[in-house]
Design brief:
Helix content: 40-55%
Oligomer: single chain
Strand content: 15-25%
Shape: globular
Radius of gyration: 14 Å
Strand order of the largest sheet: 3-4-5
């Protein structure tokens, strides 16, 4: 049975748990590509992860280099709430924006 989607604040309220699970799957497939980009980048200090969703890529970046701080930004408050409960909360910060 297809879930009903309702409109809230100009965007659609999808089932947040399903969205997070789908995003986590996609990120797991893209993890090697993310590492390739990180290997080519010269990162120092702080990284801004725009459109961080539930924090998957933010956590990958934070785990990549122990010397960097990562800030994840997403417009969906429920994703940010979920991301704040991830493991690397000392190296990451999440902002709704």
């Amino acid at each position: 049975m297809k879930q009903e989607r309702t409109k809230i604040d100009g965007s659609f309220d999808f089932s947040i748990n399903n969205d997070i699970q789908e995003l986590e799957k996609i990120i797991s497939f893209e993890k090697e590509n993310i590492y390739t980009v990180l290997n080519c980048a010269s990162m120092q200090g702080k990284i801004l992860d725009l459109g961080c969703g539930p924090g998957s890529t933010t956590e990958i970046i934070a785990n990549y280099d122990p010397c960097i701080q990562v800030t994840g930004v997403d417009r969906e408050p429920r994703f940010i709430e979920y991301a704040k409960n991830r493991k690397n909360f000392q190296k990451t910060q999440y902002i709704v924006g």
